[in-house]
Amino acid sequence: MLPPATTLPLAGIRVIEIAQNLAGPHAGEILATLGADVIKVERPEGGDDARGWGPPFAGDTAVTFHAMNRNKRGITLDLKHPAGLAELRRLLADADILVQNMRPGMMEQMGLDADSLAAINPRLIYCSLWAFGARGPMRLTPGYEPIVQAFAGIFSINGTPDGPPSRVGMQVLDLGTGVWAALGCLAALLQRGQTGRGTTVDVSLLETAMGWLSIYFAAFKVTGRQPQRHASGNPNVVVFQSLPTADGEIVVAAANDRLFAKLARTVGRPDWATDPRYASNGLRVANKAVLLPELEAIMRTRSKADWAERLEAAGIPCAPINSLADIAADAQLAALDIVETIPEAGLKVVGLPLSLGGERPGIHRRAPQLGEHNADILGHD
């Protein structure tokens, strides 16, 4: 694990984070883990809403907050008061990056818009995270993960064919938008090295959603047809889904004709590889209503473990459907050394999902208590 020292790539970069919930704090967390000095600004009364997003809690603070705000320092400022705004402007005058996801329109009302701050710090990179984007008729519309998943069409393609539309269970838009924000800030730092000036970075949950939907959207624009819900399957590839066995489900990914031929031999139907209904992926997609029930009937004759052994021996990608307890105890996860312990808090969390020179930038500081670093940074409590 890389040490929390000047060897980290963003050492010497100061970030002011005026963000709460998930997307903005995740961007700040990424930058902090890469070595930036991230100062999280919270309101004095209660702070970031995510502090209360539990159970589970660690102490009186939600585990969600601990996970999204490690490696940061934290202060409180009353931005409704001129003195609080003045202190924030003082911090921003020397900062490299601002990450903010304030309610749309609030930064302008407080005189903290990009143009105003560029006047006092032309090198400042101003990163804004939006629900629906920086432009357009919904620019000022607030939104949360499930709202934007629904609006973007993610619900419409997720779920079973005969069931209701469903959301993706994880916070894929919040966390994805945080990653895009961090990536944008890194690109802006490189650009500043060339121009000497900061710039704006705008990301949104809606744009992240459209990025994740890119293949589906491209297919829709070509065909004009709404993609159907395929449960664990894929509308463009067969066989590429979970399959029933005698004692549960196993996921099989025979993603090309070679793998399908191996699968056909493994399940005792080598004729499928040359069957005119199944000889290519396009044919298998067209005839999956016939193929899949036959395959499922065969898969039900053996256990998950038996099929896994046979499929792996044939070189066919497959996996059990693990629980979190299963993956937490898995040897592969242990080998990656991605589960880390937050200092002092003692919480086990997932570390940054990348390594530099074979080492993962680590967690060197727990999430701040509300206003914990006021004296160090502001000179008062």
Domains counted in the coordinates: how many?
A: 2
Percent in strands: 5-15%
> What portion of residues is helical?
25-40%
Q: Characterize the main sheet.
A: 6 strands, parallel
**CATH H level of the largest domain: which superfamily?**
Crotonobetainyl-coa:carnitine coa-transferase, domain 1
Q: Indicate the mean pLDDT.
A: 96
Q: Terminal Cα separation, in Å?
A: 34 Å
Shape designation = elongated
For the biggest β-sheet, the strand order reads 5-2-1-6-7-8
The number of helices is 17
SSE string: EHEEEHEHEHHEHHHEHHEEHHHHEHHEEH
GO molecular function, one term: CoA-transferase activity
Organism: Tistrella mobilis
Protein name: Carnitine dehydratase
Keywords: Transferase
Outline the secondary-structure elements.
Layout: E1 14-18, H1 23-33, E2 37-42, E3 57-58, E4 61-62, H2 63-68, E5 73-76, H3 82-93, E6 97-100, H4 106-109, H5 114-120, E7 125-130, H6 145-152, H7 154-157, H8 172-195, E8 200-204, H9 205-212, H10 214-223, E9 240-245, E10 248-253, H11 257-266, H12 281-286, H13 288-299, H14 304-313, E11 318-320, H15 324-328, H16 331-336, E12 339-341, E13 348-350, H17 374-378
Helix pairs in contact: 1-8, 6-9, 8-9
Q: What does this molecule look like?
A:
It comes from Tistrella mobilis. This is Carnitine dehydratase. By secondary structure, the chain is an alpha/beta fold. It has two domains: 14-212 and 337-378, Crotonobetainyl-coa:carnitine coa-transferase, domain 1 (Rossmann fold), CATH 3.40.50; 240-322, 2-Layer Sandwich (formyl-coa transferase, domain 3). Helix content is 39%, strand content 14%. A six-stranded parallel β-sheet has the order 5-2-1-6-7-8. Strands 9-10-11 form a three-stranded antiparallel β-sheet, with helices on one face. Strands 3-4 form a two-stranded antiparallel sheet. Helix 1 (23-33) crosses helix 8 (172-195) and helix 8 crosses helix 9. The relative contact order is 0.13.
